[in-house]
């Protein structure tokens, strides 16, 4: 039975990218195993104490990730007609030109489609170059050329169907589909709201906007708070991906009220919030100085995994924990008072083995 538990435990730890710090049966994480603020002998694990200085450094590093100014400096130009657009051209007092087949003809059939060569055909004047021109410029040209056949023609040109410029919204949206760009500028918030968000699955802190070969990660809450509500206008070809919450789960295990995997819709999640979601430390079985945040490394050969420790025996420690930000995939482990037996630790993890494995697989797929 002990061998079976050991095999299962190895799989669990590997799925959480912690294979470099696996323990053998009967062991628990002690200061003698890994010295505080030092690396382990194999260089795959580093212990760091959570201090106000560490929090200040982490906050400074997070503040560096700001959106470039050119994203906000972009201002859409007046709409220019493209191939695939359908124009509705009205000549007042001349219904035979506006709707050639009469009032029974449907409006979409009366539209003039811009062909692949950028041209459209109109009675009397023949081909009209439309691609790359504004509706106003097209109206002026048709008016000028119709004046040869009609006295003082009054012409109106509008876009009946937009088919040339569009943006794409995919991911955790109710209606993942392309959205056409029209004469009215389209903002990031507009595009997301048009597709509809899945409130139970959407991660609003990790919106990814791809433009001209560059991908930007955007936190909608930060966009509203730190950028003064500035509008981020979209341009033709932009792609928006709304990620799913299951890619940013945080795992809380050990001596807590409700161990499990938790998803957070916001980008800033503190250690205290994660412990609070898990209903706090067990008053009878938890060890005050054994609150660990295990952050796995993607490449153990390049950099070690890090174990952050919060000494939570005193109330002041929770003031520090309220400022320590977690990252997706972090494992919060609360040790037990006295000796934590390995089979007990495995039993706590078993109900969440499938969840952790799925999260690890999704992370690997995303990285690849």
TrEMBL record:
One of its GO terms (biological process) is monoatomic ion transport. InterPro entries: Poly_export, Poly_export_N, SLBB_dom, Wza_C. GO terms for molecular function: polysaccharide transmembrane transporter activity; porin activity. Residues 337-365 form the Outer-membrane lipoprotein Wza C-terminal domain. The keyword Signal applies. Pfam families: Poly_export (PF02563), SLBB_2 (PF22461), Wza_C (PF18412). Residues 75-159 form the Polysaccharide export protein N-terminal domain. The keyword Flavoprotein does not apply. It comes from the Bacteria. It is a multi-pass membrane protein. Its main location: membrane. GO terms for cellular component: cell outer membrane; pore complex. Residues 165-242, 248-334 form the SLBB domain. It is found in: Cell outer membrane. Residues 1-24 form the signal peptide. Keywords: Cell outer membrane, Ion transport, Lipoprotein, Membrane, Palmitate, Polysaccharide transport, Porin, Signal, Sugar transport, Transmembrane, Transmembrane beta strand, Transport. Belongs to the BexD/CtrA/VexA family. PANTHER family: POLYSACCHARIDE EXPORT PROTEIN GFCE-RELATED. This is Polysaccharide biosynthesis/export family protein. It comes from Stenotrophomonas tumulicola. The lineage of its organism: Bacteria, Pseudomonadati, Pseudomonadota, Gammaproteobacteria, Lysobacterales.
């Amino acid at each position: 039975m002990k061998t079976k538990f050991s095999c299962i435990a190895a799989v669990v730890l590997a799925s959480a990218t912690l294979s470099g710090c696996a323990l053998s049966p009967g062991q628990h994480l002690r200061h003698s195993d890994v010295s505080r603020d030092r690396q382990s002998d194999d260089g795959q694990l580093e212990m760091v104490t959570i201090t106000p200085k560490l929090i200040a450094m982490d906050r400074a590093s997070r503040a560096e990730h700001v959106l470039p100014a050119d994203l906000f400096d972009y201002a859409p130009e007046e709409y220019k007609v493209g191939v695939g657009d359908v124009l509705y051209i009205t000549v007042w007092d001349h219904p035979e030109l506006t709707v050639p087949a009469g009032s029974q003809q449907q409006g979409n059939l009366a539209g003039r489609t811009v062909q692949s060569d950028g041209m459209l055909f109109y009675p009397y004047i023949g081909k009209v170059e439309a691609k790359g021109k504004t509706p106003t410029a097209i109206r002026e040209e048709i008016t000028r050329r119709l004046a040869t056949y009609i006295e003082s023609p009054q012409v109106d040109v509008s876009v009946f169907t937009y088919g040339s410029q569009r943006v794409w919204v995919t991911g955790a949206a109710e209606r993942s589909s392309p959205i056409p760009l029209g004469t009215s500028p389209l903002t990031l918030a507009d595009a997301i709201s048009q597709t509809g968000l899945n409130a139970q699955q959407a991660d609003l802190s990790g919106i990814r906007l791809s433009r001209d070969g560059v991908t930007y990660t955007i936190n909608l809450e930060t966009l509203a708070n730190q950028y003064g509500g500035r509008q981020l206008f979209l341009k033709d070809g932009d792609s928006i991906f709304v990620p799913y919450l299951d890619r940013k789960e945080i795992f809380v295990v050990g001596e807590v009220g409700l161990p499990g995997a938790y998803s957070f819709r916001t980008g800033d999640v503190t250690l205290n919030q994660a412990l609070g979601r898990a209903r706090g430390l067990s008053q009878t079985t938890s060890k005050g100085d054994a609150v660990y945040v295990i952050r796995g490394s993607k490449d153990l050969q390049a950099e070690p995994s890090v174990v952050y420790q919060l000494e939570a025996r005193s109330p002041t420690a929770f003031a520090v924990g309220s400022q320590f930000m977690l990252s997706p995939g972090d494992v919060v482990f609360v040790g037990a008072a006295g000796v934590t037996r390995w089979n007990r630790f495995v039993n706590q993890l078993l109900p969440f083995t499938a969840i952790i494995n799925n999260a690890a697989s999704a992370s690997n797929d995303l990285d690849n």
